[in-house]
Design brief:
single chain, about 300 residues, alpha+beta, 9-stranded antiparallel beta sheet, about 25% helix
Length: about 300
């Protein structure tokens, strides 16, 4: 008679299966939480890096232009002879009209854009006023050999009374973000370029000046929220070389008769994350404000050189 051996069932019992399931669920939740936290941190860092990169881009553009600049505002409204950066303070036009350097163009003295009206492509007010949110910088127009060019006597509209530097005008303008639904109370910075007279055209002794088309806007950065002064943006301030201890000069207080004194610009910006909608960013607590401030000075400021060497 054979002895009966009980059958041994393989596998897990229900209790064991439940325990394993709970453990796996807890591990999965923990891993998912870690991945979510890492994704948020990565997104915050990416947004911050993007904002910093946009600020760096603005500083690079403005820094390069200001270091090359001959003047803030409209140099033709400054009423100086140029070319050699020496000479008398004198009227720009053949008719002897006085100038206004605080706007571009000055209708009475600017031979390139003074009497032509707003060029095709430009969408803002005309003339353009130097202000807390608008920086006007003029740099030389170079020929094919890298030399600065000049406008001969009698050319332009109005025509110049003395030889004048051929200037290209760069306008940095802070305006409301057009995507107001997702970025309320935020601003963007645009760059517009108004070319000087075509050097090849000037070399041919033309009867009139030919300027290439206006280019822009180039969007340099978004998400600007400050700084504010009296409930208005205060992005650009100026450095008065005759009173260096007075601090930056408010753009609303500078005047055309003292333009030779302003040899530097102070750039102030507060920038937010602009890679997501305002609602999403606010709900997730990811919005960061990055303050930035820098000063840039001219190397070839024609007004201070000319004023210091009158004949």
């Amino acid at each position: 008679m054979s002895k009966h051996t009980p059958r041994q069932d393989s596998g897990l019992s229900l209790v064991e299966l439940l325990v394993v399931t709970v453990i796996m669920l807890l591990v999965s939740v923990a891993i998912f939480g870690m991945l979510t936290a890492n994704a948020k941190i990565s997104r915050r860092l990416e947004n911050k890096v993007s904002a910093i990169e946009s600020i760096r881009k603005v500083a690079e553009f403005i820094g390069r232009d200001v270091r090359m600049a001959r003047s803030f505002g409209d140099i033709y409204g400054n009423m100086v002879t140029s070319g050699t950066m020496q000479g008398k303070l004198t009227s720009q036009t053949a008719g002897g009209a006085a100038g206004n350097a605080l706007q571009f163009p000055d209708p009475a003295t600017d031979p390139l854009y003074g009497s032509a009206g707003a060029p095709a492509g430009w969408t803002g007010p005309w003339p353009i006023a130097l202000s807390r949110t608008t920086l006007i910088v003029q740099v030389p127009t170079f020929d094919a050999n890298g030399f600065p060019t000049a406008i001969p006597v009698g050319l332009g509209s109005p025509p110049v009374g003395t030889v004048q530097d051929n200037m290209e005008t760069h306008v940095y303008r802070v305006v409301p973000d057009p995507d107001a639904a997702n970025h309320p109370n935020e601003f963007i910075m645009e760059l517009w370029k108004f070319p000087g007279a075509n050097p090849a055209n000037l070399a041919a002794n033309p009867a009139s000046i030919n300027c290439p088309p206006v280019s822009g806007p180039i969007i340099l950065t978004k998400g600007i929220i400050g700084p504010m002064r009296a409930n208005n943006l205060n992005i650009f301030e100026f450095v008065d070389s005759t009173n260096p201890n007075a601090g930056p000069v408010d753009a609303s207080t500078i005047n055309s008769t003292n333009m030779a004194a302003y040899t530097g610009v102070v750039l102030n910006m507060e920038v937010r994350n602009f890679n997501a909608s305002a609602t999403v960013v606010a709900n997730q607590g990811e919005r960061a404000t990055i303050p930035f401030k820098t000063e840039v000075y001219m190397r070839n400021q024609i007004m201070s050189t000319t004023a210091a060497n009158p004949n």
